[in-house]
């Protein structure tokens, strides 16, 4: 059979022009992305901005009225209460708002009021009605008891549930949920009865616990004040580094008061390690 020389072979054209155009577009796009990325600077994280604000630090070497008042928030410690409450001055552990119980808060609030108030015009001799209500009439001769004269007991009419509650909020920024009896000195009690407090002071002769605090300096930040003090607790004429401690001598403590809505509240106290 004779060959057909008229057959035409169709050859598909290679689209080199299209590929080249696509490559150029892709290269241009990558260049633009890379160039813009190098020009873009990531903004500073918010927490760094906050840290830069809190770096503001002012050293205070002269005790101000605010610092004097804040130092009165602190419980030095007292061995002459029937129940021993937590002192801020612990030479082994940091004392914080999270490990102070509500009964201790009531005690500390009472002591703050005691330090800042003259009770003399608010003290009256107990009556037998009150003594009976508090179940202590059997201690008072005039009320049928055999132990003490009625003049040995005074009622502090200044202290109320509302005042104690406000003082706890002032010191700790806490709203109490559990009101209970608490001791104020030796066997003196504030009784919570009929939804209010009746605080009794029994006249006795005893040596109160003693401690000594000396203001060293303070640091004021935007969000807190840190107060540094020298402290010792006196027991049997011996100085100890912390309340109810066995370490002889004195120690340096730092107390932090956080600033919330323009007011300071106690947050923590611990041994201050000097360099």
Structural commentary:
- With 275 residues, this protein is α+β, with helices and mostly antiparallel strands.
- 27% of the residues lie in helices and 27% in strands.
- The chain is built from 6 helices and 12 strands.
- The chain has helices at residues 16-39, 46-54, 65-71, 102-116, 128-133, 161-172, and strands at residues 58-60, 95-96, 123-125, 153-156, 182-185, 188-193, 196-202, 210-220, 224-235, 238-240, 251-260, 263-271.
- Strands 1, 2, 8, 9, 10, 11 and 12 form a 7-stranded antiparallel β-sheet that branches. It has a 5-stranded antiparallel β-sheet with strand order 3-4-7-6-5, covered by helices on one side.
- Helix 4 (102-116) crosses helix 6 (161-172).
- The longest helix is centred in the N-terminal third of the chain and has 24 residues, at 16-39.
- It is globular and about 65 Å long.
- It starts with 15 loop residues before the first helix and ends with a strand.
- Residues 1-14 and 36-42 have low confidence and may be disordered.
């Amino acid at each position: 059979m004779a060959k057909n020389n008229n057959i035409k072979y169709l050859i598909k054209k290679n689209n080199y022009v299209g590929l080249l155009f696509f490559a150029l577009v892709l290269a241009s796009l990558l260049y633009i992305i890379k160039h813009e990325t190098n020009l873009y600077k990531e903004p500073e994280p918010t927490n760094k901005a906050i840290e830069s604000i809190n770096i503001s630090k002012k050293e205070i070497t002269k005790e101000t009225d605010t610092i004097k008042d804040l130092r009165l928030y602190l419980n030095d410690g007292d061995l002459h209460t029937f129940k021993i409450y937590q002192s801020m001055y612990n030479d082994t552990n940091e004392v914080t708002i999270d490990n102070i119980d509500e009964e201790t808060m009531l005690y500390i609030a009472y002591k703050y009021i005691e330090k800042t108030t003259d009770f003399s015009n608010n003290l009256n001799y107990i009556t037998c009605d009150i003594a009976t209500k508090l179940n202590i009439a059997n201690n008072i001769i005039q009320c049928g008891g055999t132990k003490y004269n009625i003049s040995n007991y005074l009622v502090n009419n200044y202290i109320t549930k509302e005042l104690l509650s406000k003082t706890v909020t002032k010191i700790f920024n806490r709203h109490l949920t559990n009101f209970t009896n608490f001791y104020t000195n030796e066997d003196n009690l504030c009784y919570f009865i009929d939804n209010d407090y009746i605080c009794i002071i029994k006249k006795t002769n005893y040596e109160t616990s003693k401690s000594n605090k000396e203001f060293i300096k303070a640091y004021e930040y935007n969000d807190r004040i840190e107060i540094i003090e020298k402290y010792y607790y006196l027991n049997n004429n011996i100085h100890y580094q912390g309340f109810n401690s066995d370490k002889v001598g004195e120690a340096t403590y730092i107390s932090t008061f956080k600033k919330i809505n323009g007011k300071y509240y106690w947050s923590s106290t611990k041994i201050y390690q000097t360099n």
